[in-house]
TrEMBL record:
It comes from Cupriavidus basilensis. GO terms for biological process: regulation of DNA-templated transcription. PANTHER family: BLL4998 PROTEIN. The lineage of its organism: Bacteria, Pseudomonadati, Pseudomonadota, Betaproteobacteria, Burkholderiales. It comes from the Bacteria. This is CopG family transcriptional regulator. Residues 1-20 are annotated as: Disordered. InterPro entries: Arc_rbn_hlx_hlx (IPR013321), RHH_8 (IPR041088), Ribbon_hlx_hlx (IPR010985).
Length: 143
């Protein structure tokens, strides 16, 4: 990292017991102001301030997020697909279009072949958890 910027790692609010780390770059003045607020007791640490700032911005835009989730038919929160879920879809000759704002996960015992046979497309705004083999098999279907 350069002298003009320092990386700061923050974790978004846990959803379904999961967190994802993000990295941001801040200039020394912004970082100094954050440290001052922490020192003065307004926040317990840098991450606390960043989480609070993110939550405040999300609250400001809550209506736009809600309208977009509805318009784009996104599942809000956590959507998990087990091997049994995908086998049932395969038996019913169904192909899934997965659209999630939050966390989408595919069980570790799902084979790449089963995923390819049952998942038509994946759109995830947030985090997508699956085995490396399943992610590789579905790479052309992830948007």
């Amino acid at each position: 990292m350069g002298e003009q910027q320092k990386a700061l790692v923050a974790q978004p609010r846990p959803k379904g017991g999961e967190t994802e780390k993000i990295t941001i770059n801040l200039g020394p003045v912004d970082l100094g102001q954050i440290d001052l607020l922490v020192e003065e007791g307004f926040y317990s640490n840098r991450t606390d301030l960043i989480r609070t700032a993110i939550r405040n911005q999300l609250a400001i835009h809550a209506q736009a997020v809600s309208e977009t989730v509805t318009r784009r038919a996104l599942v809000l929160g956590l959507q998990h697909f087990s091997r049994q879920d995908l086998e049932a879809a395969q038996a019913a000759h169904q192909r899934l279009d997965i659209h999630v704002l939050g966390l989408a996960s595919i069980a570790s015992d799902v084979t790449p072949e089963l995923a390819l046979a049952t998942i038509e497309s994946i759109v995830v705004l947030g985090a997508f958890h699956a085995s490396a083999a399943v992610k590789a098999a579905l790479a052309g279907r992830i948007r």
